[in-house]
Amino acid sequence: MNEEVDVLLSNPYLATLAFFAVAVIALVVFLTIFELVTKYDDWAEIKKGNLSVAMATGGKIFGICNLFRFAILNNDTMIHSLIWAGYGFLLLLVAYFIFEFLTPYFKIDEEIRKDNKAVGLLSMMISISLSYVVGACVT
């Protein structure tokens, strides 16, 4: 079976489609995990027009996709790319908890839910910035 998969992935069009499909599925899974750890309903808040939640969620989406970019560029196989992107996601998740822990004066999730745009922007920039740091470490 691996030989057949290798033959299929040797075609650049099929390889692109395969990496794209896996990245989209993983993005949905990773966003679902982020949704479980936040204290607000991301999509309900976005539907209400909460720009802070949209910025924080957009930063997570960019960060996850950026990790996949680095993982795909620096690995030969789909499984290695997925492993590195998954590891990078875990590091982004840890960063989320560290960010919450390092701000004892207010709760990040509560401020984002209340549409504090400054906190939403900061959350977005942390996700994006750290995805570059993690991405640079991908081998």
TrEMBL record:
* GO CC list: plasma membrane
Q: How does it sit in the membrane?
A: Multi-pass membrane protein
Keyword Transmembrane helix belongs to the record: yes
Q: Where in the cell is it found?
A: Cell membrane
- Signal peptide span: none
Can you tell me where the transmembrane regions are?
12-37, 49-72, 84-106, 118-135
Query: What keywords are assigned to this protein?
Result: Cell membrane, Membrane, Transmembrane, Transmembrane helix
The entry's family comment says: Belongs to the UPF0719 family.
Protein name in the entry = DUF350 domain-containing protein
| Organism for this UniProt entry | Paenibacillus sedimenti
User: Lineage in the entry?
Assistant: Bacteria, Bacillati, Bacillota, Bacilli, Bacillales
